[in-house]
């Protein structure tokens, strides 16, 4: 996917001539402060929001966006929600059964979603995303509610997903998370994106980001 000269304003301009590209087999972090425009950019590239000018060449790739606050049918179980998703998206149920076999959501998937914590809902939405299996997976601030063990599991899952010729882009405002998880960092500040290879140490990256944000 190639984004070129993308601009977007609400009452004031949020994105100005933003340019970057997303390649297969890579995990990217969209890093920036609260309110800088991360969610706006993710919604634009997943076609959920209009933009003012510029271009997005998705090169025929499918895109799926997981919002910060995932929505489910609260009075169904996690399993029933996933089954429903499979039905409406024509995904074979065997894919769901296979996914559940090595997933840690199986410990709570039969409980009603109304009783889930924020972190549990996030794991359920990740399950939905993996079942849908888009070429480009966009996750909006997925880690804020995960504990350290789940972050490790999550990191491994994202890597395995990207290794199947796919792309993952997660937004975050937390520098160590961007450093731990991604191959490249898209730093959003002053309405523009700077694309960095993640070959810095965490200290170097922190220094670079705090000087350029
Ligand atoms: N639908 C909208 N209408 C008007 N302003 C919006 C809308 N969505 C976001 N904004 C504004 O755009 C800016 C960027 O928001 P957002 O993309 O949510 O930032 P982030 O996700 O980086 O925290 C904020 O100032 C926000 O108030
Ligand atoms: Mg946001």
From TrEMBL:
Highest taxon of source: Bacteria
Nucleotide-binding recorded as keyword: yes
InterPro entries cross-referenced by the UniProt entry: AAA+_ATPase, ABC_transporter-like_ATP-bd, ABC_Transporter_VariousFunc, P-loop_NTPase
ABC transporter domain span: 1-213
GO MF term set: ATP binding; ATP hydrolysis activity
Keywords attached to this entry: ATP-binding, Nucleotide-binding, Transport
Claim: RNA-binding is one of the keywords in the record: no
Pfam families in alphabetical order: ABC_tran
Protein name according to UniProt: ABC transporter ATP-binding protein
SUPFAM superfamilies, per database record: P-loop containing nucleoside triphosphate hydrolases
């Amino acid at each position: 996917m190639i984004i070129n000269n993308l601009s977007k304003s609400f009452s004031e301009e949020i994105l100005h001539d933003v340019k970057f590209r997303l390649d297969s087999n890579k995990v990217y972090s969209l890093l920036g402060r609260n309110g800088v425009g991360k969610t706006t950019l993710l919604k634009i590239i997943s076609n959920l929001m209009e933009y003012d000018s510029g271009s997005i060449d998705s090169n025929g790739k499918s895109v799926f966006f997981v919002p910060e606050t995932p929505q489910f049918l609260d009075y169904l179980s996690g399993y029933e929600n996933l089954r429903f998703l499979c039905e409406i998206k024509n995904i074979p149920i065997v894919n769901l059964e296979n996914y559940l076999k090595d997933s840690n959501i199986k410990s709570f998937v039969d409980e009603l979603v109304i009783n889930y914590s924020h972190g549990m809902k996030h794991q359920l939405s990740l399950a939905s995303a993996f079942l849908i299996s888009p070429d480009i997976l966009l996750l909006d601030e997925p880690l804020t509610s995960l504990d350290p063990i789940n972050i490790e599991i999550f990191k491994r899952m994202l890597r395995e997903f990207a290794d199947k010729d796919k792309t993952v882009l997660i937004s975050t405002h937390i520098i160590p998370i961007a450093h731990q998880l991604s191959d490249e960092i898209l730093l959003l500040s002053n309405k523009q994106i700077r694309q960095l290879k993640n070959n810095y140490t965490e200290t170097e990256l922190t220094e670079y980001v705090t000087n350029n944000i």
